[in-house]
Design a protein that fits this description.
By secondary structure, the chain is an alpha/beta fold. The chain has helices at residues 10-22, 74-83, 85-93, 135-144, 291-301, 308-313, 344-347, 356-379, 389-422, 430-443, 447-458, 462-471, and strands at residues 2-6, 36-41, 69-72, 96-98, 100-105, 110-115, 130-134, 151-153, 156-160, 167-171, 178-180, 182-185, 209-221, 233-239, 242-248, 270-278, 323-327, 335-336, 339-341. The protein has one domain (2-472): FAD/NAD(P)-binding domain, CATH 3.50.50. It contains twelve helices and 19 strands.
Length: 478
């Protein structure tokens, strides 16, 4: 079976690794001893690529933070652990584990403290914390695990899904198209692959939506704020005219537990920061902004905030670009005849969800496990379409439908919660600002509510959900 993955970002690389690990090999006498994988990516994919050489798209993927950092929840880390425990350790070693979040007002007063860890006591499913890590650091660790031979630097211009036969992938350079039994769209908000799901539309019927918010972020040396920032904390600062956040971005090199997702290590030398605020005039282009002017505006905006860490960060800010906050309108379908969307291409979540990367990781594992089950049925002669190309096409189609039916309710629930949180980053009047503070403070008296909510998010049993989906497959129409 020929598998094409469009996009070599976090979800695309993980899709390859997960499929390659799980999919059963074609039975003898198939012409190939294994499935054929190709990842197409228009940008440089060398493992030595720096963060400045990676694309800075105006529709940056939705993650916990902007400006180079992101958060991977315990549920996402469990996906990586099931994929490869050693790879997970390499990734954790490149970031910093946090076990709680502090929600504060603009003067630095703590309003609410939330856990950022799973609650499992099962020794086979260790209690993991949240990983704070640079986006490029996560990407580079995944990239080092993917062989160069499957990566091709080429821009996909169009994908055509076909009910019968292989799907067709066309390229921007007018080179010969390729045919694939499975095409995975891991190409983000401006997904080219998405258009294959709506062939009757002349233009993108579901373009990205600008949320009226922009983000700025970066890194500063942590030694200037070590006495002010708790180890193991992710800090969210709310005010009436914006939002600020910060966390340690790496562990101390000498800490013996720096590769463990279950421990909070001593902080390293970098602090990540980011800010989100309203900009209703339209999404700015990163290439057209004046960094000095944006830096000045940012300092003016937060000049009255007395949170001590924010005031330490502001003089050290050097803005390089601005990230508008985009989301994707809900898509009526995520798959069509063996063309399947994952991650931001299927469901771009607001950064406030804190689950952009984790949900992408869950997507690719769910798809891989479901396809593995269906291919095993086909190769064992259990499918009515035979064990050859027609059987593989049937397996892909059924697995894709199961994947969407399984994943959609979870993602939509996370989206609803994130949209509510996102509104607290917009400009508001003084009365509404202090009502927001009071609401957060009162919530702090009901920790069990948050613990239950966090357990549902972080302790999601994805393999178990896959097994339940498989058990119900007789109810699905082929």
């Amino acid at each position: 079976m020929r598998i094409v993955i469009v996009g070599a970002g976090i979800s695309g690389l993980t899709a390859y690794l997960t499929l390659h690990k799980h999919l059963p090999k074609p039975p003898h006498p198939a012409p190939a001893t294994d499935h054929e994988y190709t990842i197409y990516e228009p940008y440089n994919t060398s493992p030595d690529t720096t963060s400045h050489e990676r694309p800075q798209d105006t529709t940056n993927p939705s993650t916990l933070t902007v400006g180079g950092g992101l958060g991977v929840g315990p549920n996402g880390l469990h996906v990586l652990h099931r994929l490869d425990p050693q790879l997970l350790q390499d990734i954790v070693r490149s970031g910093y584990m946090v076990d709680h979040s502090n929600l504060k007002n603009k003067h630095g007063h703590l309003l609410l403290k939330l856990p950022a860890s799973g609650a499992s006591g099962n020794p086979e499913r260790p209690r993991m914390h949240m990983l704070a890590i640079g986006r490029h650091s996560l990407w580079s660790r995944l990239r080092c695990a993917v062989p160069d031979s499957v990566l091709i630097n080429k821009r996909v211009s169009r994908v055509v899904s076909l009910a019968d036969g292989q799907n067709v992938v066309y390229f921007d350079d007018n080179s010969d198209p390729v045919h694939a039994d499975l095409v995975i769209g891991a190409d983000g908000l401006k997904s080219t692959v998405k258009r294959a799901l709506f062939p009757e539309a002349e233009t993108d019927p579901y373009p990205p939506h600008y949320e009226g918010l922009v983000g700025i972020g970066g890194f500063i040396p942590s030694d200037t704020v070590n006495e002010l920032v708790e180890p193991g904390s992710m800090n969210f600062i709310f005010g009436g005219n914006g939002f600020f956040g910060y966390f340690y971005a790496e562990s101390a090199c000498t800490d013996p537990n720096r590769a463990s997702p279950c421990h909070v290590s001593a902080p390293g030398s970098l602090l990540a920061w980011w800010s989100t605020y309203a900009l209703d005039t339209g999404p700015p282009s990163p290439k057209s902004i004046d960094p000095d002017d944006v830096t000045r505006q940012l300092r003016d905006r937060y000049a009255s905030w007395t949170d001590p860490v924010v005031q330490k960060i502001l003089p050290r800010i050097r803005v390089q670009t601005v990230w508008p906050t985009w989301t994707s309108p809900p898509l009526p379908v995520w798959e069509r005849d063996g063309v399947v969307l994952v991650g931001d291409a299927a469901h771009a979540l607001p950064p406030t969800s804190g689950q952009g990367s984790s949900q992408a990781l869950e997507d690719v594992e769910a798809l891989a496990l479901l396809l593995t089950h269906q291919l095993r049925r086909v190769y064992a002669g259990g499918g009515k379409h035979g064990t050859g190309v027609d059987g593989e096409k049937w397996a892909v189609r059924i697995a894709a439908k199961q994947y969407e039916a399984m994943r959609r309710p979870r993602v939509e629930g996370i989206l609803a919660y994130a949209k509510n949180m996102q509104d607290r980053k917009r400009d508001m009047g003084l009365v509404r600002e202090y009502v927001m503070y009071a609401f957060m403070w009162v919530l702090g008296f009901f920790p069990k509510v948050f613990r239950k909510q966090q357990e549902q998010l972080y302790e999601f049993d994805l393999p178990g959900d896959v097994q339940r989906t498989i058990a119900d497959e007789g109810k699905m129409k082929e």
